[in-house]
Amino acid sequence: MNIIQRLIPVSNTATRPGLALVPKFITIHETDNTGTGADAAAHARLQQRGNDRAASWHLQIDDHEIIQSIPFDEVAWAAGDGRNGPGNRTSIHIEMCVNADANYEQMVSKTVEVVQYLMSRYSISIDHIVPHKHWTGKNCPRNLLPRWDGFIKRCQGLGTKDGWVQNDAQWFFYKNSSKQTGWVKVKSKWYFLDANGVMQTGWVKDENKWYFLDSNGVMQSGWVKVKDKWYYLARDGAMVTGWVKYKSKWYFLKENGEMAIGWIKDKDKWYYLDPDGSMVSGKQTISGKAYTFGKDGALIEEEVPAAGGYTGDDSGGNGEGDPPAGDTSGKGDGSSTGGDNTPSDGENTSNNQDGPAS
Ligand SMILES: [Zn+2]
Q1: Which residues form the N-acetylmuramoyl-L-alanine amidase domain (predicted)?
Q2: What is the Å distance from ligand 1's center to 41 Cα?
């Protein structure tokens, strides 16, 4: 914020009386001059060369300049409440330019900045920011009066915040100036803000369910691939575990949400999942051995694969070598704890959906 000084000559005592002012108020006016070019520079020139009315003010503001005509510790004749009126004697006066060739909203924003600066500099409280009308009843500032409360909120540092606000590389979301937390829906997309209001990305846990937010914070649904593992998120975004049917094929999501491939054991039955995660059925040759699976995908146990549950990684079940043998991996019957890069605190053990036999 830059305040340009173009002071009225001290010799012009009609408009710059030189009376001491200790600012207790800030009074807002509008020039009521909508003419093209009636900007801050024009009003400052008028004051400098000698206004033919005995009227003056400290600052004039348009959409690109803030110009000072009288020091803040001297009285200006702006309130219209008389030589000893409190409006004249206790207030700094700001004229907001309303020239048609300027952007009114930008001018108001500049004025807000100036008011905040003066409030801080002179320890003026918000209830001492007043419209000209406060002193004499004049309809001034004409355009701002109908939205005065909003203006005051902005001067308080409120009301300017709505929507996304970035601060130190973190994103926050405001509604009516209040910082939001938890889930927010913005333009039909869901976002999750932590207890401090910070927008989250990646995995988040809420009420015992996991959700995945992309790098823009948008909640995902359906299949997502995270660090080379596939996960399935329900329509409400919650990470699914157990069996899931997708486009008439069955998939199995481990307890940590990772899509399983290769052999798995579920409720004492063996199943085999192709490298794309889909469950096989019927006669299959896996790693050079013939197996028969029922329509429900369960292995018909002529020949038990003697496997230890999930093969767990991408190399499993790809037809190399034997079926997973032995249980040295400790990953048997669905108790996999998975990798270190996924939600894997292992709390959700009971929400497997019904198996494909149903
Ligand atoms: Zn006024």
Answers
A1: 14-157
A2: 18
- Ligand 1 center to 45 CA (angstroms): 18
CA 41 from centroid of its chain's CA atoms: 39
Return the structure tokens found at 356.
């494909």
Does residue 343 contact residue 239 with C-beta atoms inside 8 Å?
A: yes
Task: Report the separation in Å between the CA atom of 176 and the middle of ligand 1, taken as the mean of its atom positions.
Answer: 30
Taking only the tens place, the pLDDT of each residue in 269-307 is 999 999 999 999 999 999 999 999 999 999 997 655 555
Q: Evaluate whether 109 touches 103 at the Cβ level (below 8 Å).
A: no
Ligand 1 centroid vs 31 CA: distance in angstroms?
Answer: 7
Model confidence pTM above 0.85: no
Amino acid at 107: M
Which neighbouring-strand residues pair with 190? Answer: 185
Give the whole-angstrom CA distance, residue 273 versus residue 261.
Answer: 5
Between the alpha carbon of residue 43 and those of residues 33, 48, 65, 142, 167, the distances in Å are 10, 9, 11, 18, 38
Residue 309: exposure state from Cβ atoms within 10 A (0-12, 13-18, ≥19): buried
- How many Cβ atoms are within 10 Å of 322's Cβ, its own excluded? 12
Taking a 5 Å cut-off on Cβ, the residues next to ion ligand 1 are 29, 132, 140
Both structure tokens of 331 = 């990953």
Q: Distance between CA 8 and CA 48 in Å, rounded?
A: 5
104-122 and 148-155 helices, crossing angle to 10°: 50
